[in-house]
Every structure is written in C-alpha cells, then in structure tokens.
Amino acid sequence: MCGAIISCKKEIDNNGDNNGGGNDTIPVIITPTDPTVANSIGFFMNDWQPKNFIAPSYKDTTIPSSANITVTVDASTVVTKISPCLFGNNVNPYMTQMVTEPTLLTHITDLHPKILRFPGGNLSSLYFWNAAPGNPPADAPSKLLDANGNQIDPGYWYGNNTDSWTISLDNYYNMLQQTNSEGIITVNYAYARYSTAADPVAAAAHLAADWVRYDNGHTKYWEIGNESNGTWQAGYRIDVSQNKDGQPVVITGDLYGKHFKVFEDSMRAAATEIGKTIYIGAQLLDAPPQSWSTPTDMSWNQGVFGEAGNSTDFYIVHDYFTPYLQNSSAYEILATATDVTRSVMDYLNQSITSSGVTPKPIALTEWNIFAEGSMQMVSNVAGMHAVMVLGELMKNKFGMASRWDLANGWDNGNDHGLFSNGDEPGVAKWNPRPAFYYMYFFQKLLGDRFINSTVTGTYSISTYASTYSSGEISLALVNTASSAQTIKLAFKNFNAGNRFYWYTLVGGTDNNGFSRKVIINGQGPSGVAGGPDNYANLKAYSSTTAKGIELTLPPMSVVCMAVDKK
Q: Distance of alpha carbon 380 from its chain centroid, rounded?
C-alpha cells in the first residue's frame, strides 16, 4: 500500500515525469495510516479484507501521446477503506426458484455482490416467511385499505411457496450459499399495522423474532419494514374498526419508532437465545420533506429519532436519483450520481445531529434510476450511472448499498432488472443488461482503499481511485462528454511500474444515445442487447509505462484501469 513521500533517491527518467519507466527522481513511498472507520460505515467494514492485485491476461495496445487533460491520483492519504457491502443487489420473490437457473447463478457469482436483500421492496410488507400459499396467519385480514381508504385484496406472499415462478425462503438461503453471498432481510413491519390480533405489534414482532431463530445466524443484517411511510405501502392506512390497540388511521414516524423498539427487543432476545449477533436497521427518509409531502413524511425522521432513539444499529434509506417517471436525458441522469449521493449523506448527517441521536452506519438498501420513456433503465447510461454511484458511495462513506434489482419486468425497457426476466423481445432469459458489465469491470479492478483523484483540463470526466494492499493503483474514469478526450496520469506518492491495464466500455449505436448494448475492448453482444458473452475471460488492453500513461476515453464511456507498482 502506498504512502506519503518522506525522501527521494536519484534516478534520471527518460521523460521527466512521475509516470514510471526510466530514470527520474524516484520518491520513496511510505504507507499512510488508515483513517478511523467512519460512523456512517461502522460494522459494515467488519468483513473487510486486504486485496492483492493479480494482473489480467492482456493484449498489447498502442497508446496516444497528445493528452491535454491531466488526471492526478493522490496516494498520500487514504480517504477510507472500502466497505465490502457497497455492491449488493435485491432479490424479489417473483424471479423463479433461482437455484434451478445455473446461468443466473453464474452471473451473480461472477458479479460478487456479497449482499442480496430479500424479500425485497413493497412485497416484504405482505410476506409471511413461514406460511404456505393461501394460509396467512389467522389475524391477517382478507382485505386491506389503500391510501384512499378503498378496500383491496392484499395479495399476500409466502415463504413456503415451492412453485417454479417464485422462490421459497429455503431456496433463497440455498442461492446465497451457491453464489457466495449473504443476505439482508426485511421483516414484515406492516403486519403490526393491519393485524387484527389483540396485540398486533407483539404478533408481528414475534413473527420476526421466529424468523431470526429459524435463520440461525445465516443473516447478520435485518430491516424493520420497507418504505413504511409511503402511501403505496401496505399498512400506511388501516381499518381502525379492526384494530385492537388504538393505532391511528395513518402511520406516523413516531408510531413506527415506538413499534421499532418492540421488534428490536423481540429479535435481539431471539438472537441471544441462539447465540448469534444481528444488526437491526430503522427506516429514514433520504431528503427534506417538500411542501407537497404528506403529513407522515413531514415529521417522519424526527418521529423515528424521537421514539427509537439510539436503539437502532443502522439507518436505512432508499433513493432512485432521477425525477419520478421523467424522460430524463443522459446528462441529467449522470449528474445525479454526484449531486444526489452527496445531498443524501449531508441531509442524514444534519438530521442525526439536530435530533441529538448517536450517528450510526448508513445503508442505501434500494437505489436505481426512475428515468423512463427512452429505455434509460436498460441502457449503457444506466451502467455509467452505476459506476458513478458506487464511486460516490465510497467517497461519501456509506456503509452498505444494494441496487434494485436482479430481475423485474420488461415494460418496454422501463425495467430496473439487472438481468432480462425472459419477457424482453429477442433476448434470452437471464441475459445481463449493460449495467451488469459496468459494475463487473468496476469491481474487477477495484482496490481495497479509496483515495483522492482530480482532473485538470475538463469538467466532463469523473474519476474514482483506489489502492491495493499490494501497492498497485486502480482508477475508473467516466467520460460524460459527447466527444473523445485524451488524458494522461500523474501521481502523488506512487511510483508506476512497467505496465498498466484497462477495459474500455462504450454503448452501441442503437437507441439514440441509450444503447441496450455495451462494447468492451471492441467486443459486444451476439444479440440485440447486453454485452460480450466471454466477459469473464476478456483480455485487458495493456501498454508499458515507458512513455507515460495516456489514454483516449471515447464519448460517453467508462475506462476501468490498474497500474503496476515499481
């Protein structure tokens, strides 16, 4: 691992820079001290492991020599060790039994998400983990109320459903084992609202605690509910004529906070019984309420903080970055990666400070884009955005994140799924979408410590740098411009070795700037969407550092690269 310069030894370089190769004044490198783990990361760093760089197989490639943009990578200070829990995704209960789908399992294993959230999203508010289809608890009503007070069929979901179109709870656990992943589980909080039991909160908390017992230590991270403040959520409005403990018609943050403590007590007691440690998270809103926000949202965070206090282990937020259902441009989408990630963390820090509660780790357990109308969600732009969000999550010191989701529904390209679910015309089931490849190659060359990097000469390149414990440097460069840009690298506190390696990812020429394809080092998909089938064995481009390190970034591209150490 690189460190601050303390002395130099003379060795004259051919080209007089600090890009390696030749005989220049070579700085002596020391290892900087790792910073204290940020409160916003906390225990999500517990599984951190040092990484040693393994050079990929490569193809020698000619580099340019006319750069007018400089990217400076500063290895003198470690911003943070990289949380291993930032690369997660969401599983939903309608994407088959999964363990019956070897192609899907291979892709997930290759991606190394580490964290796979379940049962995912709104359905967790209707999910009974230990029940068979058609057999909900006796106190689960046959009708629920929507936000307007209309009776609706609940459409409950069941953990003991073995039908081929859905996934049973046991097969979720099996899938985790087969893909070398671990879970974060969202328990059914809404049941505490709509249950007709004499003590509905106790009934729901007991069900959650029994899940902890059944889980028996497989899962460390647990969420109490999903978006419970939302008008779209089961339990937002209840039929008070069926309620037995005097709950209000519409949920509030302080009510959720009170209920959270009941769940937390029951689940911790269950974990203690089986000798396991679990971490329990509470839901917060990610941004200040607006003038049009519901009364629930207006006071949600204050209510949760006021009642749950410091009993929670971590705080949960969701964010879909772009305006809801707007046909956003590529420029608008990519700009949100930086702006929104920073504003979410700033708002949470302000809310935590003003409420006087103890700072806790932050988990972004759902994220994606809402942009639709031009197939944005299934495009190369979504992949570029994903790389930028992951980099910004590191920079802003989030503890955990899980993208929404592995598979969804085509809906003419308005599909959050990382993989085709089999309903996309002309595309094979489980074919990866472009975002998969961007996330795969970003992680493939990512080190274990995040460091600073800056760009001089343009505002349209974003950079995310890291170091390996073995000393090499990794860098992701995102060119958001509509023209190619040529960059050269400069370093602080790093002596480049003899060779550097990179993968260039660009969209195809289809779909007017929102390509459903990604071309990686000149290789693309065999069909109408996705990327190269041989992505796991794709050779890197490579060149020696003898004449410096320069690269041309194509328009709207991502380059993931690594540089040998001297």
A: 17
